[in-house]
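Narrative progress, year one. The postdoctoral researcher (J.K.) led the effort to move from monomer predictions toward full complexes, under supervision of the PI. The following entry was the first complex the group processed end to end, covering 653 residues in total.
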Amino acid sequence: MAPSAVCRVRTGVVGCYNKRAQGSKLLHGLKHPPHRSIATRGHRAGCSIIVHSACPVQAASVRYFRSHPFLSQREITMLWSRYNHLFRSERCGRLLYNALSNTLLEVDEAHHRVLEEFRDRGNAFDADAEAGFLAVLRENKVLVDAGEEERLLLVRQYQRQAYSFDTSLLGLAICPTLRCNFRCPYCFEQSQRDGKLMSPETVVRLLSFIRGYKDIRHLTITWYGGEPALAFPVICDITEKIQALDLDFRGAGMITNGYLLDGGKIARLNELKIRSIQITLDGPQEVHDTRRVLPGGEPTFQRILNNVTALMDSPYDGTCTIRVNVDKQNLERYVELRATLLERFKGKKFYVYPGQVHTDLTHAYGHSCGLDLKEWAEFNLNMHRQTDVLQRGDFFPKPGPGGCVATMHHGFVVGPEGELYKCWEDVGKSAMVIGNIYEEKPAPELKGPHSDLFWWRESVRETCITNPELRALYSTGIDPYNDPVCRACGMLPICDGGCPNKRLRTRHFGEEGLEFCSIYRYNLIPYLETCYDRLRTKEICAAVLTPGEEQHDGKGYRVVLPETASTE
Amino acid sequence: MSRQAALAFVERMKTDEEFHGRVMAEKNVARRLTLVKKEKFDFSAEDLKAVQDELSGRGRDGETEGQFREIDVSSCCNGFDGCQK
């Protein structure tokens, strides 16, 4: 069909006109005050569309026209992504980050001006930009098709759900006791004096519960508490029985304060398949001993350090990670402790990282001691500026389906009396119990056509879940992709909703003062600058050490991070 | 000290375009390093390589290079990160 004359409409009505068939009659459209606009044409059937730029109606109107058969592909694939962050940095030059593709681009001044124009117009329709540059922008989701972001978010949501409902593995955090031999001022658990150990009967029930998952491929366990070392014989007993099951027991981790980790226990770690141990030290001795103390206030640092030394000198083949709980009281001392420990255990499978202390508003330790998200980011950045130490996981976003025991269908925290929770932070809180392994009914023999069906197997296992609503809230109920606030946030693709526990408490229980957002929400640009700066350091080292001329592609734009991304 | 000198040199390369141009105008690595030494940056090629390796995730301890454990379903978010015990 031959194109008809373009109908340029200046009435402020965004819409689709068919001049030839209907005169200048508006077929469908949206009323909007006139302002700077560009015309795009439905060449094949004489449609002319006026799309107003930089206005909130634009995205909706273009999505509306998306279904229109007269629009050419080019006209619907040039919208400025809402996940773009275009900025000039005094130190790093001109950068553009897109959170949907998690890509950082570096551009020269000319290309930056083009991008500013796209940003201000809200699109790149009729853009006078080179095809290669536009292709890179399209590939990295800087320019998107109408509705493309929504479709990609839908894919992310699907991936998140698929990950949560992966039933090939069973993950258990087991608390053989809630008793603790420490009295740390910031501890969120209220059950340190609860002397109960997991009973032999509960161990039998736990084994039966695990056997119910015989169709899983892997089992992982984290020993937790309370202080799990206070119930070490229970750990040995459960592990021995699990190893006798026909399951792929991948191994375990243990969160311990390290005080009771003596030679006898260290000698058994390998046979118990405890592959990783996390121990907390809160600073150099004089700092730690004011925070992590025994019930009578006695110090603990030296004994823990002796135990760590014994562990690292032993044939233990797992890793030891020291977590340092950092807040306003001790943040100045982290770097010093870290350096001392890394030097002392050089060459061992030994790591140190800072952990953010979270206390709720009502906690006796005082909310004011904890670092908020902005302060936490500043702490990490300062640490890097002063000593090159990176925060755990680098500074560049690493998006992926978020998940932990709280969101996983086959993830449980098991209390010493067989009670089931979804999150470690819920341990000891009766209102947060989602079930009990004692509630499990004897499984009927699975026979017949339904025996291999997922829902049938699940219905048998579900008998121990007494609060299915709470469990559902933890996964689907707090899905950030269903949260209008999160959907409007430019960080959603790299955040994936943050901590499920804090999100649940904030969104559903109305608790105040909890931060569950991504650290990038308030600190994206300084973090990206740090990433870029490190990359430049590496590039300069490589260039100086490579004979010959320095290589420049001369295009004026390139994808700098992630380093594997293509630039064309 | 030599690591710090190498980092100071890289910093100057980032901020001083003229210096960057002069260094890279030398096609030979040894001559570049001689020029750099004249500018009072006392480090070797190995020191510079060590910085490069460090930033590529080789050479220093896992934590500084952002070692990520495979997320363990029984764990809190990102390994043990969420727990403050």
